[in-house]
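The data are quoted verbatim for completeness:
=====
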Amino acid sequence: MEIKNFKEFCERVLPDFNKFLNDRLNSEIKQTTLRDAMLYSLDAGGKRVRPMLFLATAYSCGVKFEDLPKYFDIAGAIELVHTYSLIHDDLPEMDDSDYRRGQLANHVQFGVGPAVLAGDGLLTQAFYWIAKSDLSTDKRMAAVRILAHNAGPMGMVAGQMTDITMEDRRLSETELTTLNKEKTADLITAAVTTGAFCAGHELSKNLVQYANDIGLAFQLKDDLNDADDGEDADKNTFPNLIGKSATEEKLQELIKDALNAVLKETEFDKNLLVSFLDYFKE
């Protein structure tokens, strides 16, 4: 494999991928307010973790670097779904957040109605991109199935519903794990597993375990980062439930389990997925 480090991989791929996202939306969305609202959140400074994991997995499974742009439609769809979820999550009827990534939330900048429609636009456009990609029919159908399953009412949307309807009740550790799996981990799992499938790699329980572990770890790291600012004081988070120290231990266990799982893989280069675990040391 040419690239062994996840950070280097992102540095080399992200400029072209970001250009792809902006060029496609600018060319496809003709309603100016809708386009501006969609691009506002899409370009709000996200790290593109999910699409980069998708592309890194595909690359690790044998897709040549120069062929990665053929997979941008699928990677872009994953990022559009993630961005839509953030817009809706910030709404007054949901998490009621006025800021996202250091700038005004979409509904504050454009209004609640336009923000809802921007999210709707991103979600539906995601599946349009998958449908019109150049990948084979079986790979496109798999991408639709996995993304819809993990991001919809059997995954992320279910977690969001639990999150807003259980705010007045302290969840058990098992319930909170399920919430985090659905709301955060499932979309990350979709990125990794779709990347492998689209590259022609037969999914294994080890790769799925790796994806599930880093997905949960991602939420724990986020909760730990936010634990001291007071905004999550009344929310269902692991630092609030079991304390920061125990949450850190749980995070380290997940990282260790993810490493052990991916090291058992024998069918593809493991360097990028192992290197991604450095994200949790930042």
User: Anything to note?
Assistant: The first strand starts at residue 99 and ends at 100. The chain has 13 helices and two strands. The first helix runs from residue 6 to 28.
